Each structure stands twice: as C-alpha cells, then as structure tokens.
Amino acid sequence: MHSQLLLTLTVSFLSTTVKSGAVDLQPRLDNGLGRTPALGWNSWNAFQCNGGSASAAMTAANQLVNLGLKPLGYVYVNIDDCWSSKQRNSAGQLVPDPSKWPSGIQATINQIHGMGLKFGLYGDAGTMTCAGWPGSKGHETQDAALLSSWGVDYWKYDNCYTQCNGQVPQTCWIARDTKSWYTTFSNALKAQSHPILYSMCSWGLDSVWTWGNAVGNSWRMSGDIQNNWGSVSSIAHTAAGISQYSQPGGFNDLDMLQIGNGGLSEAEERAHFGLWAIAKSPIIIGTNLANIKTSSLNILKNSAIIAINQDSLGKAAKYFTPSGQSGPGNSLYPYWAGPLSDGVVVGIVASNGALNYNVNFASVPGLGSGTYNWKELYSGKTGSGTSISGSLSTHDMAVYKITTGTAVTTGGSGETPTVSTIVPTTTSGNTGGGGGTVAQWGQCGGSGWTGGTKCVSGFTCTYNNAYYSQCV
Ligand code: GLA
C-alpha cells in the first residue's frame, strides 16, 4: 500500500470513533489522570464567592482530614470562582487576591500538599468568570504555566462570557464551537510539567460527552445543580442516557454534591450519592463541613459505595427494564445496572414515590439466570439468590453489589458447589483462548487454558486478567 494512503487511513482511524462490538472506543486525553472519578470538596455550592480564599481552603483541608474523609479518597480541595484579584497584573498574570490569600496562594497549596491532599482552582474560557473575575481568553498558555508553577492539581474551566454569535453574554445556550476553546486550554495544560486534571465546565453544551474524552478528564453534562430533588433527579436522568461515554480518563460530571445543604431529605441524599456513584461522576462535596449532619456525613463516608464509584473498570451504570415493568420514560427511572471489575452494581431508586421492588437477576445486564451473592450497600444486608426484593420510601435508594465471580449456582444434580470444587467438564471451542460459550461447569478458553477470563451471562467467556477461568 502506498505510504500516503496508509497514513491517511491511519489518521482517519485514529480520529474517528472506533466501533468494537457494542463498545465505542474513543480517543482519550492521554495525561494519565482521572482514571477513576475525582473525589474531593469544592467551595461554590456552600460559600459561592466567599469561598475563594486561603481560609476556606485550609478549613476544608483540615475537615477532610479530621472527619476521616481523606482516607476514603476525598483528596481534592477545590477553590471555585472569585479567588483572584479583579485585574491581571502588568505582565498579564492572574493575581491571587491578597486580601483572600494573605500569605500568597503558594503557601496554601504547599500546606495542602503537605497534608497529602491536592489543590484545585477555577477559571473560565471567556473574558470573565461567571461571577465577573478575569477569564483566560487570550491568556491560556500563560495561565496554564502559572497553575503548573504553583502545583495546582485540578483545573475547573468554566464557559461564561465566551463567544456567542459574535457577542459575549454571561451564559449562552445556543450551539457554538465550545470544543475549540476547551481544546486550546487542554493543549496549554499538556505543555506543562505539573500534571493537572482538566475538569471542563461547559454545562453539557455541544454534546460535550461525544468529544470530551479527547480533550479533558471530566465534563459537566448539565446546567448548575440546584439544592432540590427535581434538579438531582433530572441530572441523573440525563446521565443515564450518556453512560457509554464515561471511561477511565474521562467521565461525565453530574456536578458538585448538594448533600448537607438542607434542600434534600435523608432519603434523597442517599439517592443523590448513590446515583452519582454508580453513574461514575466525580464526587465533589459541596457543603460546609463545619455544620454537616451525622446522617449526611455517613452517606458521604459509605466506603462500599465509594468503591463502586472508584471501580477500575470505570463503566457507568444505566437504566435496564426488569421483566414485567414498563421501560424508562422522560424522567428518572428506578432501575439501574452497570458492570464492575468484580461484579455488577444494581441501583434501585424510588423516583416516583414509595416503591416495592422485586428484580430477578435474569433481567439484569451482565448477570442472567442463576444464583448470585448480593450485598445492599446502605443497609449492609447480604444474601444469595436469584433475585433481590425490598421496599423503599419516596426518593430513597438501594445500591446492590452483585458478585459474579463468587456466584454460587445450583448444579444439574441439585448440589451447591463452591468455586474451588468445580471440575470443568466442558471447554469452549476456542483452544487458543478467547471468547466463546460453554455449558455450565465449562472452562473458558479451551482445555488447559489458564489465562484470565471472565464469565458473563449465559456462561459466555470473555477475557479479563483478573477473573476466573471457569464459568459456573
Ligand atoms: C458556573 C458553574 C458553577 C460555578 C459558578 C461560579 O455557574 O457552572 O459550577 O463554578 O459558575 O461562578
């Protein structure tokens, strides 16, 4: 083949979404960051402009440590809008407002790093931030270099006062080339020595999820979250439809949490947290941790649900329809499922009032008929069976981890063997390894195969280095 033609084909292959079976492979921002969703705290929802200061940052940093949130993975202390002076200096640099950062911003960042935490800042692609502070338009390279020199670890980049059909209103909801200015800052960050997670805050405009992976580590997929259930449920409903775009290195960002801010019932706070976790959103606490209620703090500290969010597979859950139920409509639907590296997560949310549920594993994507071990991660209840059932009060949520790897299945003769006693009697036809279908008690990959495989519904084998080589 002529080299020019080969080059052309290669370039078009790389720049196009690649279909591989049911999975869309998309180009990723290759900065090695955000392999799992970010966990941390942000100043905006609780403090708005008053949170753009050293004291807000240090207070939150100490609270993450003292409340035991840091060991659970909440490491980002993110300062939002209003942290800089209203004018750049004579060299065109952003200047931390000296009244808010009396010892300079560098001292605060050093202290936060010294606590084993990371530090995030906020900026804007337009002429001004949403609250009217200097934006980065025309200063992208200079600003990225400044962030890197300070050791900023996370950059939330907003979309206010950007071009809108030749004008620059504060917010502009019509379609325009948002991607171009998000790419400009992405390239500026890539040129820096300090690794900076790139959090794009473009409010879901221009279907950012279709190109966000190549440009940033996360992207807001909605307008600003409000402190009420209607907002939480509508963001989650939108996220269910774009779950396939979240993968390690690039995640749909459902926005900073409202947990602890008083607008949600305890049940709604459980659902908010559970939905954000299974949708693989960054989980950025947005409350004043000095006043947080024990019930809210306990929700944020649910390590089993955090582990679902941080699962290495990085695949977001989406709706599924249990047999006998009508399917999703145009508002939040109760039934969610998604793959994990070691099982399946099933989320059930009482979106339309109190809910009695009974879900057979046969209708859950990634499971199928059979007996599985399950654990409900808010109550801690465990069990084993072919289905899960329970009742939820209005807007409450149950999050089940279903463990496929340790599934206990009733064999043909009625016994209930454990994985270690199974003797494979059937092998997949694929002797060199690979995918295939085997009968119950079959061994994936063919006789003698010892490589990694994963057993999925219908006793189908797929490769996965961390899994069993037998399908039971
Ligand atoms: C926008 C963003 C919010 C917050 C504010 C700050 O509205 O979407 O998350 O950063 O700006 O002004």
- Ligands and ions found: alpha-D-galactopyranose
Tally of DSSP β-strands: 23
Beta content comes to 15-25%
Tally of helical segments = 11
Radius of gyration: 24 Å
Give the biggest sheet. Answer: 8 strands, parallel
Would you tell me the structural class of the helices and strands?
alpha/beta
What characteristic shape results from the CA principal axes? Answer: globular
Contiguous runs where pLDDT drops below 50 for at least 5 residues? 1-23, 405-434, 439-459, 462-472
Oligomer: single chain
Average pLDDT: 85
Strand order of the largest sheet: 9-8-7-6-5-4-3-10
Q: Kindly state the percentage of residues in helix.
A: 10-25%
What is the distance, rounded to the nearest whole angstrom, between the alpha carbons of the first and last residues? Answer: 47 Å
